[in-house]
Records
---
Amino acid sequence: MKNLLEGFLSTLFPRSCPLCRSVILDRGACFCPSCLEGFETIREPFCRRCGSPLPHGMPDREDALCGVCLSRGPGFPVPFTVRSIALYAGNVRTAILRLKFGRERPVGRSLSLFVKEHYGRFFPAEAFHSILPVPLHPRRLREREFNQCVLLARPLAAHLGISLDLHTVERVRHTSPQSASTEAERRKNLRGAFRVRRPERIRGRSILLFDDVYTTGATLEELARSVLSAGPRRLCGLTLARSPSPGIHP
Ligand SMILES: [Zn+2]
Ligand SMILES: [Zn+2]
């Protein structure tokens, strides 16, 4: 009955793919099948600490680490793990740029469904008490009018029945990625960028940090450093996308 009704509705009100405008027959799909083919999802084997994809054919071991994490040694810079859903390339990159700079919210809504669909590949449904999207500085928020991380994580939080925490941590320093030319400068710029306003909402709880793109990991690590100071039980990070090679992205 439900399928009949859905079929009827999709004939009357066809949905279009927010990227290419072609008609989507499956009403539950986030993008059309041909656009989704241009999404390069990250699958095993990946680094068990930072989530970066490892060369195909490497054994998928619980302790597999990428070259960067190996060179940093245990626990450096902060003890937490990150997973990324797809490479920041092809249609994923196009969609994120159209959301952030073209302010195309329908693209954002479809990307948020994509995040919700892929979460279960990395974490169990009951793993966290709340999702904490990377906060934007109020100045950046005024320029962009929305925080893309909040928009991207909202359906996931609703689906898991956990809170989307927008008030516990604030961004107290405005930093521009363009102002730093090296990774070291970028990390230095980010120092002290976040402040925990309500540590009682972190202490003893399991928290998932969410960012749109993982470039060098500097932003998530700085946020993790602040959150860890409030004593969470467990802290992980999830990003929609990840740069194929570390660098600065717009
Ligand atoms: Zn499409
Ligand atoms: Zn790694």
---
Amino acid sequence: MTPTRLTAAPRPITSVGHRTIDPSILYLGTPVVLISTRNAGGTTNLAPISSAWWMGKTGVIGMGTRSHTVENLRRERECVLSVPSVDLVTEVNRLALTTGSDPMPGYKDVMGFEHVRDKFARAGLTEIASEVVSPPRVMECPIQLEGTVSSIMEVGDPKDHTAAIEVRIVRTHVHESILAPGHRHHIDPNKWRPLIMNFLEFYGLGSQVHPSRLAEVF
Ligand SMILES: Cc1cc2nc3c(=O)[nH]c(=O)nc-3n(C[C@H](O)[C@H](O)[C@H](O)COP(=O)(O)O)c2cc1C
């Protein structure tokens, strides 16, 4: 009779270097986007965000619900998402700690935010007319996405006052300087240099690290 062999269950591998932490934010490194919306009186608001991701012709942005932008989006249901390249970092940084809200929410007052009526002027950026929606585009941004709001969903802990906003992109404008040669509808990833917010600090992209199998298929 063959003796039964008792095998020990495989031991889970434990990591040597990882620590369990409780970070205040998870800004893992995402492109900055400038969102323009119409104010109630017809003027324009502009705000920098970096919580944004894309799927097909939909953009989903994450924003604090006490921002002037979300107030405008709830009422107007339209926006433009203008995407700055890395060389617009100075202009973007001028918009930090500003809000279109007047009066501003108490927590922003405490943090030293400033109410700014004309954020295009503050940043040194230029408004240009959109083609489908009412809010203007940012001329200096190489990528400008006109969008309509499909849904605004409160997310996370209620005390965080955050929402995921689904934006349907209805018109895409791309500066010819970042298009792939000979391809009218393709952005050349070697030419497009997004401005990245990485744990609250600004970065750019490095050069390509490896050819992509997915890119071969598409
Ligand atoms: C580079 C950068 C990225 C930001 N990312 C976000 C973001 O993803 N979501 C958000 O709600 N606020 C973000 N903020 C803060 C908003 O810009 C800020 O709340 C601003 O007051 C909103 O303007 P508003 O009140 O006129 O809408 C970011 C600020 C900067 C400078």
---
Amino acid sequence: MSVNGKTAGLLKDALEGRPIEKAEAAFLLALPEDSLEAALLRAAATTINRRRFGNGGLLLGQIGVDMAPCEGDCAFCFFAKSHTTVQPALLSVEEIAARCERFARGGARGVFLMTMHRFGFEWFRDLCAELRARIPPQLEILANVGDVAASQLREFKAAGVAGAYHVCRLREGLDSCMNPAARRATIERIIDAGLAWYNLCEPVGPEHTPAELAEQLWLGVDLPCVQHGAMQRFPVPGSPLYRHGQVSLPRLGQIVAVAALATMGKEHVKSIAVNVSNLVGLFSGANAFFPEGGEPEGRPEESASPKEGFTTALWRQSSEITTADCREMLAAAGFSHLMDTAGRPTQPLSAPPREGA
Ligand code: SF4
């Protein structure tokens, strides 16, 4: 069996330090996910990124603090007003602070606070300010909210927010009620406000073409994100896109690998993330996870799923992936330590004990 010459040439160039271009990304994304070439792509991204990030991994927690039927009405989303059954609910500041404590105890260095597209700006800003005074200082507050104005971003920053996740999604405006230009404008405002911009290629489904994926990925190449990567879409029963199903973990890894090779040499990119947290992603160039729960407390069944609020576990209809689970996967994959959002080592990772050892 021989390796396709174009793939071999691109990977050789990447291993020697040349980032891929957009057309090359589309070519690599068109490789069948079960091909030898796709496996080599994932392996090359692993080799490059272990070197690039000093074999360190990053954990950033997530807490859905505000849920309601959402006017964004994305055709894939659990909260879209057209098909959701959720009732409006806010998480209490005590519960959020307690979850932040558990994330910090588990080695996370940031936490995404997630709302719907429309949210109470003043409530959220004041929540961030109160949390900043209460939660461990090493845990950065990262906003994942709807489109916001420059003045609002400045207020977030003054309240202690360090960064914001914002994406111009795949098929934005077609599978959502939002305007791609408005999404991009918010991203530019985040960067202008001096907040760290967190980005992903998402929500990836089987129907997205290589050209579409490359196009969406490239916003995070053209603009200075601190994190790139990919997130798969979980099919929500009753949602219009449910029929498409979901991508495999090797396919998700292939997209992660392309994000890694496209952002090589960009000093502002401090990590490459994959969601859902999984081992294949760690062998595809990813070094960052978004744990859904912090360090477990009590019996596993007591902390298995949240009673209030939400995380991506809600989409999977599954128990939360905790900081302990994430550390175990990173250690099993050979990562040596956890790091902070700037890439500085924070604590060693030890491999989980082998059975009988
Ligand atoms: S993805 Fe975000 S904006 Fe879209 S419906 Fe869901 S919560 Fe609303």
